Amino acid sequence: MALARAERERAIAWAYVTKNREMIQPIFGPATVHFDVFRHRLLDADNSVSSLKHIQDGVCRVLLPEGDGPSAPYRWEYVQTKAQPGESTGTMVTITRT
Q: What value does the mean pLDDT of the chain take?
């Protein structure tokens, strides 16, 4: 649990830094949140989504105040790309108002 909390807090901090640096306002209303994940070892669909929960929580806390529940107006998309040996891994989040 401590690791999950640390990852969630790191994601929240990243979202605050990005929000302030890019001067992004919170998004109310419909939007699409797209996760591009670059990994050395790909996960199945269920594990891929659950492994991004801490990032999703951080983005919601800072940028998407209507939350990530079933009644929220946000659509979530997930794409994995296999990173080659020596390439960087990570996650890129793109939010588009719809």
A: 92
The whole-model pTM stands at 0.87
Which tokens go with 40?
Answer: 């050395």
Give 86's DSSP letter: T
**Residues listed for the chain:** 98
What is the pairing mode between strands 90-97 and 31-39?
A: antiparallel
Strand, coil or helix: 73:
coil
Coil, strand or helix: which one is 94? strand
Helices (H), the chain: 2-22, 45-51, 53-62
Helix (H, G, I), strand (E, B) or coil at 1: coil
